[in-house]
């Protein structure tokens, strides 16, 4: 599942008439890179949630055939935040664990991120804190468990392997952030983490988008 429903307000005028997932990097929409990376690790059945200017995303990507994947859309008349959006998409996602990625991150994907969950409700990909979020989100211990407290701190990279039951008890069509669901999983000792030291960037502002453009243009 690709999360693509947000307004992208930190992008200011760049997203006044264009949804953030369609902003261009290296001459191509950002979301196309996600689709290609998902396909490269064997994921060809992809659900995308859409809300703000969602028609543009659906028109641009279609059914996914030209990218060699199958695309389906979970339409949110009003954006439901992360957990609410996942809950709304469950009829399309099915009953098995699924891979989740934010449309506004740039990251390589590896099979090591996607090993079976076991009894966990989710496994988050974690990265070293960037300068704009030095306080971090969670502590990852030596056994691969995530904790709300503890040092050193890592940041949730916007990618995770999740079991549908993480959000299944939420009320559909109701906005809900993801963090309360993650805290609940921590309390059950069912939230794992994978420390990623490869390529990663949070493309949340025009400045970070410009830095990514420079990076891609020099590859």
TrEMBL record:
Listed Gene3D superfamilies: Spore Coat Polysaccharide Biosynthesis Protein SpsA, Chain A
Domain named Nucleotidyl transferase: residues: 1-115
GO molecular function, one term: nucleotidyltransferase activity
InterPro entries: Mannose-1P_guanyltransferase, MurU, NTP_transferase_dom, Nucleotide-diphossugar_trans
CDD domains in the record: NTP_transferase_like_1
Keywords: Nucleotidyltransferase, Transferase
Record PANTHER family: SUGAR-1-PHOSPHATE GUANYL TRANSFERASE
Protein name: Mannose-1-phosphate guanylyltransferase
Organism: Kushneria konosiri
